[in-house]
Amino acid sequence: MAFLKPEAIDLSHHLSGTFPTARHLSPLKGLQKYWGRPGIISLAGGLPSPAYFPYSDISANILVPNSFPVERKQEESSFSWLWKLLGADKEKTTPVTVPKYPVRPEDINLATALQYGMSAGLPQLQKIVKEFSDKVYSPAYENYTCLLHAGNTDAWNKVVITLCNPGEGVLVSKWTYPSAMATMQPFNIKPVPVEIDGQGMRSDALRTLLTEWDEAARGMPRPRVIYAVPIGENPTGTTTRVARKKEIYQLCVEFGDLQVEDDPYFVLQEGEYVPKSMRGRQTQASGTGIDDEAKFIASLEPSYLKFDYQGRVIRLDTFSKTIAPGSRLGWYTCNPMFAERLERAAETSTQAPCGFGQSLVTATLQEWGYEGYIRWLKGLRLQYTLRRDYFVDALAEEFQLTVAPGTAGMWEGCQVYTGSAKPKRSVTGYFNEKAPISSPLFSFVPPTSGMFVWLKIHFDQHPSIATTAKDLEMKLWIELAEAGVLFGPGSMFSPTQDWSSERSGHFRISFSNLENDEMTKSVQIFGKVIREFMGNL
Amino acid sequence: MAFLKPEAIDLSHHLSGTFPTARHLSPLKGLQKYWGRPGIISLAGGLPSPAYFPYSDISANILVPNSFPVERKQEESSFSWLWKLLGADKEKTTPVTVPKYPVRPEDINLATALQYGMSAGLPQLQKIVKEFSDKVYSPAYENYTCLLHAGNTDAWNKVVITLCNPGEGVLVSKWTYPSAMATMQPFNIKPVPVEIDGQGMRSDALRTLLTEWDEAARGMPRPRVIYAVPIGENPTGTTTRVARKKEIYQLCVEFGDLQVEDDPYFVLQEGEYVPKSMRGRQTQASGTGIDDEAKFIASLEPSYLKFDYQGRVIRLDTFSKTIAPGSRLGWYTCNPMFAERLERAAETSTQAPCGFGQSLVTATLQEWGYEGYIRWLKGLRLQYTLRRDYFVDALAEEFQLTVAPGTAGMWEGCQVYTGSAKPKRSVTGYFNEKAPISSPLFSFVPPTSGMFVWLKIHFDQHPSIATTAKDLEMKLWIELAEAGVLFGPGSMFSPTQDWSSERSGHFRISFSNLENDEMTKSVQIFGKVIREFMGNL
C-alpha cells in the first residue's frame, strides 16, 4: 500500500477559491504548540466547568449483536422483526454506561464528550471508524484520514463548500437524491446529469460528456466533482460493480475529477432477488450465511476507496442505517488535505457531532467490538433482504409478473420484471400464465442493495399520454394518496426537471419500514388504483 | 401584544437572493396535505425500521435542580463546586429514562427521536423552549416562532446564508467573537466593525456609520444585519443595557436592519463586582438570592425580543452554557418567515439536532419542570459569580489594584481597575496604598455577565512600544505560555486585523473552568511574567 504524497498528485487546485474554507480558529499561527501542552493552565477557552453538566452518567440498554438471524430459516421467518417490534420475542440486551469522569484516562466520559470538543470527534470513536474503514474498505493508499461528521447530508454540504465554486457543476446520475441537489442550490452549484443504466452512472456517457464538454455552450467549466450513491442508489436502487467503478475512477484520473461516494446503503447488499417459487426453504439469502468477517466483507461490492491510489475519493459513511438516523453521526474517509479543510469547515458551523450521540454510539461499538458490529450488520442485511423479498413477492401476488431481459433504456440487459393485470379467471402461478398477458402497467428491476424499488409506470399505454408523463405521474400519485398509500413521486428525483422526452412516470417505493401486513395492503391498493387509472380494470 | 403580520412590515427583501434558501424537499407543492395523514400507509420515505435501532432505552442520572446554592454563605463558599468535582460532596441525582416506544402517544421515545425527524426538532422540546422564550424574553409580538438548532455556531452559519449575499457586510463590535467572523468568511460576507464602549456596540457610532455610509467608497451596500453578543460579550465581557438596546433597535427600524442576538451568557448575569474587603460575609451575589422565577427574570437585562415589535430580531439560544456544550443544541426565536427559511436550510445540512441529545435534554427538562430549570439557572449564575469574584480577588492579591472612572476610550465612565506592581515592602491593603503607585501594567472592567475578563495591557509603558502593539502582545503571550499559562490572545478577536492605531495589547481571560488553586497559580505566574516583561521587577 502506497503512502500518498499530496505533492505527487497535486489536488490542491480542487479546493474552492470563492468559498475559501475558514481559517483555523483557536491557535494563531506559531502558537499551536502550546495548546494542550501537559501541565499548562489554560484560561484561553470559553469552557464551562464539567461540574455544571447536569449528568452524573448516561446509559443505555443495547441489543446484543446477534439480535437478528443471519440465515433465512423457517423459524426465523420474515416475521421475526415484527415479533420483536411487538415485544412477543423478548429482546436480549446489555447495559452500557458513560460516566461523567473517566476511571482510566482512555475511557469515554461525559466531561470530555459533553465539553466543547474537537470537530474531528471523540478519539475513541475516530479509532473505531478508522479500523472499520481500514478493514472493510481497504483504501489503496496509506495516509487516508477518517473524520467524524454530523451525518451525510451535512457532510455533503461541507464537501460542496470545500470543493466547488459558485456557478460550477457537479456530475450526478440522471435520477438522483434530491436532498443532495437541494444542498448545492443555495451555493449556485448546478447538477449535470449523466445517463444511467442498471449499474447507475454510465462510464461511456461520462467519458463522452467530459471529452466533449463545451464550456461556452454549457456556461460553466467542465465539472470536477462526481456525486454518486454507488450502492443501492437513491432512488433507482442500482449498484455500481467493480469493473464500472474502475472505469469511472480512471476517468477521474484522466480528467482530474474527484469522486464523492455517498454510501449509506453499503452494508445493505441484499443480493439478487429470487422469485418465491424458486426459493428453497433453507436457501440462504445470498451471502448472509457467512459467519466470518473477512468472507462477509469479500461478499460486498467494494468502495471506490479500494482503487483510489491518487486520493481522489471522498467517502461519506453514516450510522443512519446501521445504528439510527437520529444519531446524526458518520465519518469521512479521504486524503489528509481534504480532511483538514473539512475539519475547518466544521469548526465554524456544526463544530463536533453531538456528545450524547457520540458517547452512546462509542459505548455501543466498544461493547460489541469489531466482530460484534460486523455480526450486527450481517443481521441487518438479512432483515432488509427479507423485506425486499416480501415486497417483491407481494407484487407477484397482486400482478401478473413477467421477467425478460431489458432491450433498451436504463435497464438494457437487466432482468426486468414487468407487471400487468392478472387475468380475471385464473389465479395459478405468475410466470407461466397461459392466458394472454394484458398491457404492461409498470416495470422494475428488483434491487440488489438498499431500501428502494424504482417503479417505472408505463404511461405510454395510457389513453391520455398526450399530456406529459409528469402530469400523469402526479395524477396517479394523488389517486394513490386518496386511496391511502404514499409512494415517492418520481419527479422529485429529477435533478433538472426536464420532462420533454419522458414517456414514463416513476415511483420510488421504500420497503424499509413497513410491517408486512401494511406492505401487503399497500400493494393491493396500488393494484386496484393503477388498474383503474390505466383503464385496465 | 401585537400579532405580527409579515405584510405589515415587509421583511422579505432581507432574504438573500444569491444564496436562495433550499426548496422544501419532501412534499412537492400540492402534495403536502397527504403527508402524515392519519391511517395513510407511507412507502415514500427512506426510514429504517425502529426495530433496528439497537437501543431498548437510554437513561441518565441527572443532578437535582438545587444542586448549587443561590445564596453566598460561609459554608457555601466558592469551593463548593470543587468539592462536588472531587466527589467530597455527594451529588444528589434523579434517574430519567427514554424508552424505545412511548407508553402514551405524547411521551418522548427513541422510535421517534432516533428516526429521521423534523428539522424543527422534537415537538416536546419545542414546547419547552417556546415556554421559556415566552416567559423569560416576552417578545413584543405574538406569532414569533421557536425552532431548535444544532448550536449557536451552526445557527449563525444558517442565518448568514439565509440573510446575506456574497460581498455584503455585517455590523459587529470592534472586538468580537472570531468564530462568528470565520463563519462568514467562506461566503465572502465581511465584518464591518462599530466602535464600542463599556456597554458594547455604541448606538451613536452605529448611527453615524449608517447615516454616512458611502456604498462606492466602501465597496459594499449599507449592511442590513447587526451581529452582537449583547450580554457578557465575547471577548470584552460588556453588557448592553435596556436604553442602549432600545436605541440600537430604533436604528434597525430607521435603517431597515436586522438584529441577530447571539446570547449564550444570558443567564450568567453576575452583577457588579464588589471588592472582597467590601463584601459582607452574608452579602448575596446581586439578585441570586431571589427565589421566585418572575423576580429572577426581572433581575436580568432583557433580550432584544422584548422591544421587537417589527420582527427584526433573530435570537440564538444555546444549551451550551446551561446544560453542556456537547449537547450541540439550542433554538432560534424569530418571526415565522425567517423561521421557515432557517428550517429549510437545516433540511439540506444538519437536518434535525441529534436525537440522543434532544431526548436526554428533553427528559431532563421535563423532570425538572420550568421552575426546576429556573432554579438550576439561578444556581449556575451564583457559581459563575463566585468564579468571577475569585479571579478578580486573585488579581487584587497579586497586584496593586486602583479603581477610577475611565476618562477615554471604550471604558469612558466605567469603574476601571488598573493593576500595577505592588510596592516591594508593603503587603497591606490594595486600594489605599500609601506608597507611590508604579506604572500601570494592565486595566480591566470586571464583567457583570459571562465568562471573560478583557485585560488591556499598557504597552504604551513598554520600552519598545516602537514595535507594534500586536507584536508585543504576541511576545508576552509566548512568555506567559512558556511559563505555563495560556490566555486568549487579544489579536484573535479583531475582525479586521487593523493594528495601525493600537497602543495596547489585550488578553481574554476565561474564569469559567479552572479550579481555584489553578486560578491563583495562573495569576501569580502572570504577575511574575508581566512585571519582568514590562521592565518593572
Automatic annotation (TrEMBL), chains A, B:
User: Which GO BP annotation is one of this protein's?
Assistant: alpha-amino acid metabolic process
Any idea which UniProt keywords this protein has?
Aminotransferase, Pyridoxal phosphate, Transferase
| Protein's recorded name | Pyridoxal phosphate-dependent transferase
**What InterPro entries does the annotation carry?**
Aminotransferase_I/II_large, Class-I_PLP-dep_aminotransf, PyrdxlP-dep_Trfase, PyrdxlP-dep_Trfase_major
The Aminotransferase class I/classII large domain extends over 113-410
Its required cofactor(s), as named, are:
pyridoxal 5'-phosphate
User: Which SUPFAM superfamilies does the UniProt entry name for this protein?
Assistant: PLP-dependent transferases
GO function term, MF aspect, one: pyridoxal phosphate binding
Give the matching PANTHER family.
AMINOTRANSFERASE, AROMATIC AMINO ACID AMINOTRANSFERASE, HYPOTHETICAL (EUROFUNG)
Source organism superkingdom: Eukaryota
Family membership, please give it: Belongs to the class-I pyridoxal-phosphate-dependent aminotransferase family.
